[in-house]
From TrEMBL:
Protein name: Uncharacterized protein
Pfam families with a match to the protein in the record: PBP_GOBP
InterPro entries reported in the protein's UniProt record: PBP/GOBP, PBP_GOBP_sf
Originating species: Chilo suppressalis (Asiatic rice borer moth)
Length: 121
């Protein structure tokens, strides 16, 4: 699939996330027409989480920063409320057999929290 990627907050559209995702996508794929594999999604998610401060370069997850991003999302769209503050998702990501792979750890955490999604356009 030849595409550009956009990332958006699952709860509401967030311009900062789009800008950061575009930066990550351009860093990972400097050529305009590339074949984006589904397997690339985890590293795009890691890049975004890292640039937003939710995840460190070595894979440590900062729940305080995550919670602030969730609060921003709720301010943008109050229809979707999250009862999990990231604790169980952090435990899930830490327990994964891929925890040494920061991209896969980021994907596990993101899949659990449902904070971001990749949209190919």
């Amino acid at each position: 699939m030849s595409a550009n990627a956009r990332i958006a907050v699952m709860y509401a559209h967030d311009k900062l996330s789009d800008v950061v995702a575009e930066q990550c996508f351009n860093e990972m794929f400097p050529r305009k027409h590339v074949v984006v594999q589904e397997s690339d999604e985890s590293c795009i998610i890691f890049c975004v989480l890292r640039k937003l401060g939710i995840m460190s370069p070595n894979g440590a997850i900062n729940l305080d920063v995550y919670r602030k991003r969730v609060q921003v999302a709720h301010q943008l769209d109050r229809r979707n409320l999250v009862s999990d503050f990231g604790n169980s998702c952090l435990e899930t990501a830490e327990a994964t057999q891929h925890k040494q792979d920061v991209c896969k750890k980021a994907k596990v955490f993101n899949d659990c929290t449902h904070l971001y999604r990749i949209l190919l356009k």
